[in-house]
Amino acid sequence: MKIEFLAIPEVALITPPRFQDNRGFFSETYNAERLKEAGIHLPFVQDNQSLSTQRGVVRGLHCQLEPHAQGKLVRCTQGSIWDVAIDARTGSPTYGKWVGAELSADNWSQLWIPPGFLHGFCTLTDNVMVQYKCTGLYDKASERAVRWDCKDLAIDWPIKPEEAILSDKDAQNPGFAEAKGWFSYSK
């Protein structure tokens, strides 16, 4: 399992190996011990899956507040996405910074997004299947969101704003200034 920490050092791009033969392939997509060796050792308690039928679907930017904050291990098993993590930990040296990676069925990579980060993605193809493991259970009262195209974040999305397909809920999300104080940074 290849684990590469990105420009925000707590966020990791994880690429499990695929063992191929004439039948197809086998891949161990999650190994608690291997991730623990890399410093990622929170228990996963919930799995989620989404299907987006069109290119340009944007989901996010979402998080949950303490004590229900969620870390997420995200992978794309059909199609491809541009996946983004934004540091929302007040006091962090990378507060308000983002990192992104393309996740696809072809590259088989996953993105580890720790608690205290906003998360969102944009579909790059039609018929995209995304699966992710969460370290906390969904709690509606703890749910928070930020607008996907917030100018303060300056995320380099691979689509134009007029191409974005949003839920009614995500279309109403506030800017990043609302996130101040949601999480505190602790080393």
Offer a concise description of the structure.
Keywords: Isomerase. Its EC number is 5.1.3.13. The chain has 187 residues and is mostly beta strands.
Describe this structure in words.
Pfam families: dTDP_sugar_isom. Belongs to the dTDP-4-dehydrorhamnose 3,5-epimerase family. Keywords: Isomerase. Its EC number is 5.1.3.13. It comes from Commensalibacter communis. A hairpin with a 6-residue loop joins strand 1 and strand 2. The model has no long low-confidence stretch (mean pLDDT 96). The protein starts with a strand and ends with a strand. The strands form four sheets. Strands 1-2-11-7-13-5 form a six-stranded antiparallel β-sheet, with no helix packed on it. It has a five-stranded antiparallel β-sheet with strand order 10-8-12-6-14, with no helix packed on it. With 187 residues, it is mainly beta. It has two helices and 15 strands.
Key descriptive features of the protein:
187 residues, mainly beta, 6-stranded antiparallel β-sheet, 5-stranded antiparallel β-sheet, isomerase, RmlC_Cupin_sf
Please compute the radius of gyration using only Cα atoms: 16 Å
Output the structural class. Answer: mainly beta
For the largest sheet, list the strands in their spatial order.
1-2-11-7-13-5
Average pLDDT works out at 96
- Helix content, binned percent: under 10%
Low-confidence stretches: none
Largest sheet: 6 strands, antiparallel
Our measurement of the CA-to-CA distance between the termini, rounded to an integer number of angstroms, reads 26 Å
Tally of helical runs: 2
Strand content: 35-45%
Cα shape: globular
Strand element count? 15
User: H/E order of the elements?
Assistant: EEEEHEEEEEEEEEEHE
Family: Belongs to the dTDP-4-dehydrorhamnose 3,5-epimerase family.
GO cellular component, one term: cytosol
Function: Catalyzes the epimerization of the C3' and C5'positions of dTDP-6-deoxy-D-xylo-4-hexulose, forming dTDP-6-deoxy-L-lyxo-4-hexulose.
Protein name: dTDP-4-dehydrorhamnose 3,5-epimerase
